[in-house]
Amino acid sequence: MTIVRALTAGLVAGVLGTAAMDAVWYLRYRRQAGTARLLEWEFAEAVNDWESASAPGQVGRRAAEFVLGETPPDTWARPATNLVHWATGVGWGLSYTVAKKVFPHARLLAVALGPAAWLTSYAILPLLKVYRPIWKYDARTLRDDLSAHLVFGLTAASAFAVIAPSRRRR
């Protein structure tokens, strides 16, 4: 497989995994009486300032503050939320591509992708003051977040397997 095909497969896998994870979160949101339409919710239409930005938006704010030396304007909150959210999913898809190249026969990679993304967020985001330490969250919050990340990982890994099948299965 060429490097371009592998990277494209990782990118597409990351996008599809992110969309699947977001579908889980959106269905949960609607079950809890959320009223926003799918695309409004997906692309953070309700985010008008940094206070209303989710974790990806807060990471974007921290990055912009680091580069600019000051808090960016509130008008950046929505685009930062979307950019960091989708870039994170794509980044994990690309990371999966690298892992498959290094460990081509490791079957557990598909199962490990989601939990790796989940656990990494609970390791990095507290350092950025975006999340609290993992032990400060209740079991239900952690379970819900982990299950959504499992959907991400399994969808991304499945998409990668379809787009860039291993030679063994051809």
Produce the secondary structure layout.
Blueprint: H1 3-31, H2 38-42, H3 55-68, H4 77-102, H5 109-124, H6 139-163
Most strands sheet = none
**Straight-line distance between termini:** 12 Å
Report mean pLDDT, rounded to a whole number: 95
Number of strands: 0
- Structural class label: mainly alpha
Q: Low-confidence runs (pLDDT<50, min 5 residues)?
A: none
Strand content: under 5%
3D shape: globular
Short description:
The chain crosses the membrane at residues 6-27, 108-128, 148-166. It comes from Orlajensenia leifsoniae. The chain contains six helices and no strands.
Description:
The chain is an all-alpha fold. It has one domain. Helix content is 68%, strand content 0%. The chain is globular. Keywords: Membrane, Transmembrane, Transmembrane helix. This is DUF1440 domain-containing protein.
Question: What are the salient characteristics of this protein?
Answer:
68% helix; mainly alpha; 170 residues; 0% strand
